[in-house]
Amino acid sequence: MAMDMWLKEMQLEGEGVAMSYKIKETLLRKQTQYQDMAIVDSEVFGRMLILDGIVQTTIKDEFVYHEMISHIPLFTHPNPKKVLVVGGGDGGAIREILKHKSVEKAVLCEIDKDVVDACKKYLPEISCALDDPRCEVFIGDGIKYVKEHKNEFDVIIVDSTDPFSIAEGLFGGNFYKDIYEALTEDGIFVAQTETPFFLPDTVRKVFSDAKAIFPVTKLFMAAIPTYPGGYWSFTVGSKKYDPTQVDITKIPEMDTKYYTPEIHKACFVLPKYIKEVIGE
Length: 280
Ligand code: AAT
Fold this sequence. Notes:
- The chain contains 9 helices and 12 strands.
- It is α/β, with parallel strands linked by helices.
- Strand 2 and strand 3 (36-42) form a beta hairpin.
- The chain binds S-adenosyl-1,8-diamino-3-thiooctane (AAT).
- S-adenosyl-1,8-diamino-3-thiooctane (AAT) binds at residues 51, 54, 56-57, 65, 86-90, 92, 109-112, 115, 141-143, 159-162, 166-167, 170, 192, 227.
């Protein structure tokens, strides 16, 4: 008897919306110290990392998210040497960061060691750079780590789960103040900040919290098929460099599938309804 297995993701249950994926096989299911973790093989997106029932990354579309969360800040800062990723235990952002020759050290601060171990085993295409000598993997809470480091990072990337439970404190003013202090004097930070279509209040709050702290605050968008709404936001807070004013003719060629110098400019051009969400 043929059996169809579907994963129904309820991230937007409160909004009355769910996404479903046809699943071929469950490769791993584990209750970690922090969350319910699964690695499944899906029909359309290949292997996926699922945390508390929510799709975090997939083999097929991870490039969009990881390229955009990394290359926008790293090509805005003229000479990024030391980079911190908060969350991002799959290693996708680290892989993109280490494509930049100027980077001497990239620290990954992930709270859940089981995520790192599972991604190393089942998602090697994404986690492949975690063993690079320029990468340091630190297992611990990003909120504490950022508080304990001052004036140290040129770029901080907040690659976190959605704003509930362990990740709740990674969205908002108190955390952004600590990020400001953990950055060097011309540092820049970027965070994944959810769907403006379904969660306008979240996007509005995060943007205004960042704007209260950083002299330059901008929102950019990317099309990520497995994140609800498909059209995902990222917030940049910068002490000095404006990501929209980068001279894109000076951006060197890089091995990417989504990011291009033209996309660097275009991703900051926002539809009217999103401008209204953030009051710009
Ligand atoms: N690269 C895309 C994948 C992620 S996963 C985000 C990671 O953040 C998870 O592994 C989770 O364990 C980690 N995390 C959550 N809270 C903390 C914390 N306080 N400190 C450190 N790490 C943390 C992002 C997907 C975005 C999903 C959008 N729907």
